[in-house]
User: Fold this.
Amino acid sequence: MGKHLVFVGGGHAHITCLKNIRSFVTKGHRVTVINPSPYHYYSGMGPGMLAGTYRPQEIRFHIRKMVQTAGGEFQEARVTGLDQKRRILFLDSGAEVPYEVVSFNTGSAVPLDQIETKDAGNVFTVKPIVNLLEARQVILNHIKARRPRILIVGGGPAGLEITGNAWRFVRENKGVGRFTLLAGRELLPEFPQKVRRLARRSLNDRGIEIVEGARLRKLEPNLAHLDDGHEYPFDVALLALGVRPSGPFRESGLPTGSDGGLLVNANLQSPAHPEIFGGGDCISFQGSLLDKVGVYAVRQNPILYHNLMVALDGGELSTFVPQDVYLLIFNLGDRRGILWRRKLIFDGRLAFLIKDHIDRKFMRTFQVSGELDEP
Ligand SMILES: Cc1cc2nc3c(=O)[nH]c(=O)nc-3n(C[C@H](O)[C@H](O)[C@H](O)COP(=O)(O)OP(=O)(O)OC[C@H]3O[C@@H](n4cnc5c(N)ncnc54)[C@H](O)[C@@H]3O)c2cc1C
Assistant:
């Protein structure tokens, strides 16, 4: 007998399942995908889109098309809660969707609860990635008017990439901007000394100011206040303050980890509810807190795909074993990158080309045909 499988969020961890929806449907199952937008933007190429290196069409998946052409049902909505006893999802549209098996890939969001934001306009969080499109337009309007003051907040990889790529966007549009990166305690504190040195040099060489040793406390219109009393005026601010899992887990009474993510075991399955699965940034992996990187979301794809099939039809569940070392490449926005894997660290054009190759290949694997020709 066919069952109802529901995917909540069409993110990176679900992309293999979404590409293979037909394999669930041909076995007689009904498949529904719920996502607030018909598109999903690939974060790895988000900073490059901000720079104009990639068109928006090149970095997004047409989730709705992917689902509907494979015989699934797509609902453009956000899941706001669930009743795990009755197995019903609640949507912001007011609809209720029953499920027999459900998988969450609701990603993460930039937490703003530590910062006072007082009517500050032109402030963009770097997630969801689509915000960067709007930020680009606002920066463009400021380039035309005068020399824009662009403030980036966050000393992690996203802050670095966004800074370098915002710089490129201004330059490509014949503008001159003033760039300040508020890096918090310090730039890339969790990275090897060499990576930090290369990143710092890249920004310094372009005249980008790096502020360390203080944290953002408050944003007012065109003015950022740090906790050491310093103030920085800005025209556009981009916030890359790290991420926190999103999804209605805790408030729905589901077991969660210390970061509020959906608690899952090595089968990517809720220990309390075997019909609930999850992957990507929204989960708290039992036993070890995983870095919030797309690398893990992508690696969880085949496990989720297999285990959801098992949850519907029976069989043996597979185990996700997180790799402790992975390749990281930062896109610095000047057609150069920094590559880091184990002891190998270098910067330059080759690093960017490797990232560009990997990212484009990933997109080619999952984009539906005709996507690049869309407006
Ligand atoms: C600027 C930037 C650059 C990055 N670059 C890299 C990189 O190069 N390599 C790397 O490994 N990692 C990178 N990361 C980290 C990476 O973005 C995340 O780890 C990755 O996006 C996680 O994928 P995900 O599918 O879990 O979440 P997301 O990509 O956030 O996707 C979640 C999806 O769920 C949907 N959704 C959310 N809430 C709901 C809801 N309530 N109901 C229904 N749907 C919902 C969203 O609309 C979205 O489509 C970067 C992050 C940033 C911010």
